[in-house]
Amino acid sequence: MEQLLQQIEQLKQEMNAATGSDSDAAEQFRIKYLGTKGIIKGLMGEMKNIPNDQKKNFGQVMNDLKQLAEEKWESLKGAAADAGASAGVDFDWTLPGAPVNVGGRHPISIVRNQIVSIFKRLGFAVAEGPEIEDDWHNFTALNMPENHTARDMQDTFYILQNPDWVLRTHTSSVQARVMEKQKPPIRIICPGRVYRNETISARAHCFFHQVEGLYIDEHVSFADLKQTLYFFVQEMFGKDVKIRFRPSYFPFTEPSAEMDISCTVCGGKGCSLCKHTGWVEILGCGMVHPKMLDNFGIDSSKYTGFAFGMGMERICQLKYRVNDLRLYSQNDVRFLDQFTGGV
Fold first, then answer.
1. How does the cofactor bind to this protein, according to its record (predicted)?
2. pTM greater than 0.85
3. Same domain for 211 and 178?
Protein backbone atom coordinates (compact mmCIF):
# COMPACT_ATOMS: atom_id res chain seq x y z
CA MET A 1 0.00 0.00 0.00
CA GLU A 2 2.77 2.45 0.97
CA GLN A 3 4.62 1.72 -2.24
CA LEU A 4 1.49 2.50 -4.30
CA LEU A 5 0.95 5.79 -2.45
CA GLN A 6 4.52 6.83 -3.16
CA GLN A 7 4.01 6.01 -6.86
CA ILE A 8 0.82 8.10 -6.90
CA GLU A 9 2.63 11.09 -5.39
CA GLN A 10 5.30 10.84 -8.09
CA LEU A 11 2.57 10.74 -10.74
CA LYS A 12 0.98 13.88 -9.31
CA GLN A 13 4.30 15.69 -9.55
CA GLU A 14 4.74 14.52 -13.18
CA MET A 15 1.24 15.69 -14.09
CA ASN A 16 1.73 19.12 -12.52
CA ALA A 17 5.01 19.50 -14.39
CA ALA A 18 3.54 18.49 -17.78
CA THR A 19 3.57 21.28 -20.35
CA GLY A 20 2.58 21.72 -23.98
CA SER A 21 0.90 24.27 -26.21
CA ASP A 22 -0.43 22.14 -29.05
CA SER A 23 -3.19 19.57 -29.45
CA ASP A 24 -0.70 16.72 -29.95
CA ALA A 25 0.80 17.28 -26.44
CA ALA A 26 -2.68 17.28 -24.89
CA GLU A 27 -3.60 14.06 -26.70
CA GLN A 28 -0.38 12.33 -25.63
CA PHE A 29 -1.10 13.31 -22.00
CA ARG A 30 -4.60 11.82 -22.23
CA ILE A 31 -3.36 8.56 -23.71
CA LYS A 32 -0.59 8.19 -21.11
CA TYR A 33 -2.67 8.82 -18.01
CA LEU A 34 -6.38 8.48 -18.93
CA GLY A 35 -6.37 6.08 -21.86
CA THR A 36 -7.86 2.59 -21.73
CA LYS A 37 -4.32 1.24 -21.35
CA GLY A 38 -3.07 4.24 -19.36
CA ILE A 39 -1.38 4.49 -15.96
CA ILE A 40 -4.51 5.32 -13.95
CA LYS A 41 -6.41 2.39 -15.49
CA GLY A 42 -3.53 0.11 -14.46
CA LEU A 43 -3.47 1.42 -10.88
CA MET A 44 -7.22 0.86 -10.60
CA GLY A 45 -6.53 -2.80 -11.25
CA GLU A 46 -4.46 -2.95 -8.04
CA MET A 47 -7.65 -2.49 -6.00
CA LYS A 48 -8.00 -6.26 -5.76
CA ASN A 49 -4.67 -6.50 -3.91
CA ILE A 50 -5.52 -3.85 -1.25
CA PRO A 51 -6.70 -5.09 2.17
CA ASN A 52 -10.42 -4.64 2.69
CA ASP A 53 -10.02 -2.14 5.52
CA GLN A 54 -7.88 0.12 3.27
CA LYS A 55 -9.89 -0.13 0.03
CA LYS A 56 -12.00 2.94 0.85
CA ASN A 57 -8.97 5.17 1.47
CA PHE A 58 -7.18 3.86 -1.65
CA GLY A 59 -10.29 4.49 -3.74
CA GLN A 60 -10.42 8.11 -2.58
CA VAL A 61 -6.74 8.59 -3.46
CA MET A 62 -7.31 7.17 -6.94
CA ASN A 63 -10.34 9.41 -7.52
CA ASP A 64 -8.25 12.46 -6.57
CA LEU A 65 -5.52 11.31 -8.97
CA LYS A 66 -7.97 10.82 -11.81
CA GLN A 67 -9.57 14.22 -11.17
CA LEU A 68 -6.14 15.87 -11.21
CA ALA A 69 -5.33 14.16 -14.54
CA GLU A 70 -8.61 15.28 -16.11
CA GLU A 71 -8.13 18.88 -14.94
CA LYS A 72 -4.58 18.92 -16.31
CA TRP A 73 -5.78 17.51 -19.62
CA GLU A 74 -8.44 20.23 -19.93
CA SER A 75 -5.76 22.82 -19.11
CA LEU A 76 -3.48 21.51 -21.86
CA LYS A 77 -6.37 21.52 -24.38
CA GLY A 78 -7.21 25.09 -23.45
CA ALA A 79 -3.58 26.17 -23.89
CA ALA A 80 -3.51 24.54 -27.33
CA ALA A 81 -6.72 26.33 -28.36
CA ASP A 82 -5.37 29.68 -27.16
CA ALA A 83 -2.14 29.12 -29.06
CA GLY A 84 -4.07 28.36 -32.24
CA ALA A 85 -6.22 31.48 -31.82
CA SER A 86 -3.22 33.73 -31.23
CA ALA A 87 -1.46 32.25 -34.25
CA GLY A 88 -4.38 33.38 -36.43
CA VAL A 89 -4.33 37.01 -35.31
CA ASP A 90 -2.26 38.03 -38.34
CA PHE A 91 -4.83 36.66 -40.81
CA ASP A 92 -5.87 39.24 -43.39
CA TRP A 93 -9.67 39.27 -43.27
CA THR A 94 -9.82 41.47 -46.39
CA LEU A 95 -8.61 38.63 -48.62
CA PRO A 96 -11.26 37.24 -51.01
CA GLY A 97 -13.04 34.12 -49.83
CA ALA A 98 -12.68 30.65 -51.28
CA PRO A 99 -14.68 30.25 -54.49
CA VAL A 100 -18.05 28.50 -54.22
CA ASN A 101 -18.75 25.93 -56.93
CA VAL A 102 -22.00 26.74 -58.70
CA GLY A 103 -24.02 23.80 -59.97
CA GLY A 104 -26.12 23.67 -63.10
CA ARG A 105 -28.86 21.70 -64.78
CA HIS A 106 -28.14 18.37 -66.41
CA PRO A 107 -28.03 18.66 -70.23
CA ILE A 108 -31.06 16.36 -70.54
CA SER A 109 -32.99 18.64 -68.17
CA ILE A 110 -31.96 21.68 -70.21
CA VAL A 111 -33.24 20.10 -73.44
CA ARG A 112 -36.42 18.84 -71.75
CA ASN A 113 -37.28 22.31 -70.49
CA GLN A 114 -36.64 23.82 -73.92
CA ILE A 115 -38.89 21.26 -75.62
CA VAL A 116 -41.66 21.77 -73.06
CA SER A 117 -41.40 25.56 -73.44
CA ILE A 118 -41.71 25.37 -77.24
CA PHE A 119 -44.77 23.13 -77.25
CA LYS A 120 -46.45 25.06 -74.44
CA ARG A 121 -46.46 28.07 -76.77
CA LEU A 122 -48.52 25.93 -79.15
CA GLY A 123 -51.03 25.07 -76.42
CA PHE A 124 -49.70 21.64 -75.45
CA ALA A 125 -50.05 20.62 -71.79
CA VAL A 126 -47.55 18.33 -70.03
CA ALA A 127 -48.80 14.86 -69.01
CA GLU A 128 -46.92 12.26 -66.98
CA GLY A 129 -47.51 8.65 -66.03
CA PRO A 130 -46.00 5.65 -64.21
CA GLU A 131 -42.74 4.09 -65.35
CA ILE A 132 -44.01 0.58 -64.47
CA GLU A 133 -46.91 -0.18 -66.80
CA ASP A 134 -49.39 -2.96 -67.48
CA ASP A 135 -49.55 -4.66 -70.85
CA TRP A 136 -52.76 -2.90 -71.88
CA HIS A 137 -51.46 0.66 -71.63
CA ASN A 138 -47.96 -0.12 -72.92
CA PHE A 139 -48.86 -2.40 -75.85
CA THR A 140 -52.39 -3.65 -76.48
CA ALA A 141 -54.24 -0.32 -76.34
CA LEU A 142 -51.70 1.08 -78.80
CA ASN A 143 -52.71 -1.39 -81.50
CA MET A 144 -50.05 -3.93 -80.50
CA PRO A 145 -51.99 -7.00 -79.36
CA GLU A 146 -50.27 -10.16 -78.14
CA ASN A 147 -47.91 -11.72 -80.73
CA HIS A 148 -48.01 -8.55 -82.84
CA THR A 149 -44.75 -8.20 -84.79
CA ALA A 150 -44.33 -4.61 -83.59
CA ARG A 151 -43.52 -5.90 -80.11
CA ASP A 152 -40.35 -7.45 -81.51
CA MET A 153 -39.08 -3.92 -82.22
CA GLN A 154 -38.81 -3.27 -78.48
CA ASP A 155 -36.71 -5.36 -76.08
CA THR A 156 -38.76 -5.19 -72.91
CA PHE A 157 -37.95 -5.49 -69.22
CA TYR A 158 -40.70 -7.61 -67.66
CA ILE A 159 -41.46 -7.07 -63.96
CA LEU A 160 -44.24 -9.69 -63.79
CA GLN A 161 -45.90 -12.03 -66.25
CA ASN A 162 -49.47 -13.32 -66.41
CA PRO A 163 -50.57 -10.57 -66.02
CA ASP A 164 -47.70 -8.70 -67.66
CA TRP A 165 -46.17 -5.67 -65.98
CA VAL A 166 -43.22 -4.01 -67.67
CA LEU A 167 -40.87 -1.08 -67.44
CA ARG A 168 -42.48 1.16 -70.03
CA THR A 169 -40.79 1.05 -73.41
CA HIS A 170 -42.15 4.44 -74.53
CA THR A 171 -44.17 7.31 -73.13
CA SER A 172 -47.03 6.40 -75.46
CA SER A 173 -48.51 4.70 -72.40
CA VAL A 174 -49.12 8.19 -70.99
CA GLN A 175 -51.10 9.05 -74.12
CA ALA A 176 -53.19 5.92 -73.53
CA ARG A 177 -53.96 6.93 -69.95
CA VAL A 178 -54.94 10.44 -71.01
CA MET A 179 -57.27 9.19 -73.76
CA GLU A 180 -58.79 6.81 -71.23
CA LYS A 181 -59.86 9.67 -68.95
CA GLN A 182 -60.18 12.71 -71.21
CA LYS A 183 -62.33 13.32 -74.26
CA PRO A 184 -61.21 15.48 -77.21
CA PRO A 185 -59.87 18.00 -77.72
CA ILE A 186 -56.60 16.57 -76.38
CA ARG A 187 -53.29 18.37 -76.84
CA ILE A 188 -50.44 17.00 -74.70
CA ILE A 189 -46.75 16.20 -74.65
CA CYS A 190 -45.41 13.35 -72.52
CA PRO A 191 -41.79 13.67 -71.42
CA GLY A 192 -40.20 10.93 -69.33
CA ARG A 193 -37.77 8.07 -68.90
CA VAL A 194 -38.24 4.79 -70.78
CA TYR A 195 -36.46 1.43 -70.70
CA ARG A 196 -35.24 -1.05 -73.31
CA ASN A 197 -33.26 -4.24 -72.73
CA GLU A 198 -30.31 -3.27 -74.90
CA THR A 199 -26.54 -3.65 -74.65
CA ILE A 200 -25.02 -0.43 -73.32
CA SER A 201 -22.74 1.31 -75.78
CA ALA A 202 -21.94 4.78 -77.11
CA ARG A 203 -25.12 4.64 -79.23
CA ALA A 204 -27.52 2.65 -77.02
CA HIS A 205 -28.50 2.42 -73.36
CA CYS A 206 -30.91 0.41 -71.24
CA PHE A 207 -32.76 3.61 -70.36
CA PHE A 208 -33.22 6.92 -72.12
CA HIS A 209 -35.66 9.83 -72.29
CA GLN A 210 -38.50 10.50 -74.69
CA VAL A 211 -40.94 13.28 -75.45
CA GLU A 212 -44.10 12.20 -77.22
CA GLY A 213 -46.91 14.44 -78.39
CA LEU A 214 -50.60 13.87 -79.09
CA TYR A 215 -53.21 16.16 -80.62
CA ILE A 216 -56.78 14.93 -81.17
CA ASP A 217 -59.64 17.13 -82.34
CA GLU A 218 -61.99 17.57 -85.27
CA HIS A 219 -60.40 18.20 -88.68
CA VAL A 220 -56.79 17.59 -87.57
CA SER A 221 -54.69 16.84 -90.66
CA PHE A 222 -51.18 15.80 -91.64
CA ALA A 223 -50.59 19.42 -92.63
CA ASP A 224 -51.14 20.40 -88.97
CA LEU A 225 -48.58 17.80 -87.93
CA LYS A 226 -45.99 19.09 -90.43
CA GLN A 227 -46.40 22.74 -89.41
CA THR A 228 -46.24 21.86 -85.69
CA LEU A 229 -42.99 19.97 -86.11
CA TYR A 230 -41.58 22.58 -88.48
CA PHE A 231 -42.16 25.24 -85.82
CA PHE A 232 -40.50 23.05 -83.19
CA VAL A 233 -37.39 22.44 -85.33
CA GLN A 234 -36.91 26.11 -86.13
CA GLU A 235 -37.28 27.11 -82.48
CA MET A 236 -34.91 24.39 -81.29
CA PHE A 237 -32.22 24.44 -83.98
CA GLY A 238 -32.62 27.75 -85.83
CA LYS A 239 -34.45 29.21 -88.81
CA ASP A 240 -32.05 27.82 -91.42
CA VAL A 241 -32.66 24.14 -90.62
CA LYS A 242 -34.56 22.17 -93.28
CA ILE A 243 -36.84 19.18 -92.69
CA ARG A 244 -38.03 16.21 -94.71
CA PHE A 245 -40.50 13.39 -94.10
CA ARG A 246 -39.96 9.74 -95.11
CA PRO A 247 -42.69 7.06 -95.12
CA SER A 248 -42.37 4.60 -92.22
CA TYR A 249 -44.42 2.22 -90.07
CA PHE A 250 -45.70 2.49 -86.51
CA PRO A 251 -48.61 0.38 -85.24
CA PHE A 252 -50.36 3.32 -83.56
CA THR A 253 -50.25 5.76 -86.51
CA GLU A 254 -51.41 5.53 -90.12
CA PRO A 255 -49.96 7.00 -92.27
CA SER A 256 -46.61 7.12 -90.48
CA ALA A 257 -43.40 8.96 -91.20
CA GLU A 258 -39.93 9.62 -89.89
CA MET A 259 -38.69 13.17 -89.89
CA ASP A 260 -35.14 14.24 -90.69
CA ILE A 261 -33.48 17.62 -90.32
CA SER A 262 -30.53 18.98 -92.26
CA CYS A 263 -27.34 18.20 -90.33
CA THR A 264 -26.60 20.92 -87.80
CA VAL A 265 -22.85 20.20 -87.93
CA CYS A 266 -22.11 20.34 -91.66
CA GLY A 267 -25.18 22.28 -92.78
CA GLY A 268 -26.27 19.47 -95.09
CA LYS A 269 -22.95 19.11 -96.90
CA GLY A 270 -22.14 15.69 -95.40
CA CYS A 271 -20.07 14.64 -92.39
CA SER A 272 -19.51 11.69 -90.06
CA LEU A 273 -22.51 12.64 -87.87
CA CYS A 274 -24.99 12.47 -90.75
CA LYS A 275 -23.07 9.61 -92.41
CA HIS A 276 -22.37 11.95 -95.33
CA THR A 277 -26.06 12.15 -96.29
CA GLY A 278 -26.64 15.70 -95.06
CA TRP A 279 -29.68 14.54 -93.03
CA VAL A 280 -30.20 13.36 -89.43
CA GLU A 281 -33.32 11.55 -88.20
CA ILE A 282 -34.80 13.08 -85.05
CA LEU A 283 -38.33 11.67 -84.60
CA GLY A 284 -41.16 9.45 -85.76
CA CYS A 285 -44.72 10.69 -86.30
CA GLY A 286 -48.02 10.08 -88.06
CA MET A 287 -51.78 10.32 -87.90
CA VAL A 288 -53.36 8.47 -84.97
CA HIS A 289 -54.63 5.06 -86.07
CA PRO A 290 -58.47 4.92 -86.01
CA LYS A 291 -58.38 1.64 -84.09
CA MET A 292 -56.42 3.33 -81.33
CA LEU A 293 -59.14 5.98 -81.03
CA ASP A 294 -61.83 3.30 -80.93
CA ASN A 295 -59.99 1.49 -78.12
CA PHE A 296 -60.70 4.48 -75.87
CA GLY A 297 -64.23 5.21 -76.98
CA ILE A 298 -63.28 8.17 -79.19
CA ASP A 299 -65.38 8.37 -82.36
CA SER A 300 -62.86 7.86 -85.18
CA SER A 301 -65.42 9.04 -87.75
CA LYS A 302 -65.58 12.43 -86.02
CA TYR A 303 -62.11 12.95 -84.58
CA THR A 304 -58.64 12.69 -86.05
CA GLY A 305 -55.28 13.37 -84.55
CA PHE A 306 -51.53 13.21 -84.89
CA ALA A 307 -48.78 11.87 -82.67
CA PHE A 308 -45.01 12.16 -82.62
CA GLY A 309 -42.13 10.93 -80.47
CA MET A 310 -38.47 11.85 -80.14
CA GLY A 311 -35.51 10.91 -77.96
CA MET A 312 -34.17 13.72 -75.79
CA GLU A 313 -30.66 12.29 -76.03
CA ARG A 314 -30.76 12.63 -79.81
CA ILE A 315 -31.82 16.27 -79.57
CA CYS A 316 -29.14 16.88 -76.95
CA GLN A 317 -26.55 15.25 -79.18
CA LEU A 318 -27.38 17.59 -82.05
CA LYS A 319 -27.44 20.72 -79.89
CA TYR A 320 -24.29 20.03 -77.86
CA ARG A 321 -22.51 17.46 -80.10
CA VAL A 322 -22.32 14.78 -77.41
CA ASN A 323 -21.10 11.60 -79.10
CA ASP A 324 -21.54 9.05 -76.29
CA LEU A 325 -24.89 8.26 -74.61
CA ARG A 326 -23.13 6.88 -71.54
CA LEU A 327 -21.89 10.36 -70.58
CA TYR A 328 -25.43 11.40 -69.59
CA SER A 329 -25.60 8.89 -66.73
CA GLN A 330 -21.99 8.56 -65.55
CA ASN A 331 -22.09 11.69 -63.33
CA ASP A 332 -18.63 12.74 -64.51
CA VAL A 333 -18.14 16.26 -63.19
CA ARG A 334 -15.80 17.10 -66.07
CA PHE A 335 -18.70 16.52 -68.46
CA LEU A 336 -21.43 18.15 -66.36
CA ASP A 337 -19.35 21.28 -65.66
CA GLN A 338 -19.61 22.17 -69.34
CA PHE A 339 -23.33 22.90 -68.84
CA THR A 340 -23.02 25.04 -65.68
CA GLY A 341 -24.15 28.11 -67.59
CA GLY A 342 -27.20 26.35 -69.04
CA VAL A 343 -30.67 27.54 -68.07
1. Binds 2 magnesium ions per tetramer.
2. no
3. yes
Greater confidence (331 vs 77) lies with 331
Q: What radius of gyration do the chain's Cα atoms show? A: 37
Number of domains in the chain: 2
Q: What is the CATH number of the domain that holds 210?
A: 3.30.930.10
Please check whether residue 96 lies inside any domain of the structure: no
Residue 327, amino acid: L
Annotated binding residues for Mg(2+):
254
Q: What is the dihedral of CA 82, 87, 89, 95, to 10 degrees?
A: -130
| Dmax (CA) of the chain | 112
- DSSP H or E segment with residue 250: strand 243-250
- Give yes or no for a contact between 150 and 140, defined as CB atoms under 8 angstroms apart: no
Q: Do 142 and 12 sit in the same domain of this protein?
A: no
Of 20, 52, 87, which residue sits at a domain end?
87
Q: Which alpha helices (DSSP H) does the chain contain, by range?
A: 2-17, 23-34, 39-44, 55-87, 107-120, 135-138, 172-181, 222-237, 290-295, 312-320, 333-336
* Residue 225: strand, helix, or coil: helix
Q: Is residue 286 part of a domain?
A: yes
Nearest residue to 306 (alpha-carbon basis) of 241, 243, 191, 212? 212
Domain edge (last residue) among 32, 56, 87: 87
What is the domain extent for residue 262?
Answer: 107-339
Return all residues near 263 (Cβ < 8 A) that are at least 6 apart: 269, 270, 271, 273, 274, 277, 278, 279, 280
C-alpha 333: how far from chain center: 13
Q: How far apart are the first and last CA of the chain?
A: 80
Residue 311 has pLDDT above 80, yes or no: yes
Q: Is 111 within the bounds of a domain?
A: yes
Q: Which residues contribute to the annotated binding site?
A: 254
- In this prediction, residues 249-263 reach a mean pLDDT of 93
Contact call for residues 255 and 307 (beta carbons, < 8 A): no
Classify residue 101: in a domain, yes or no.
no
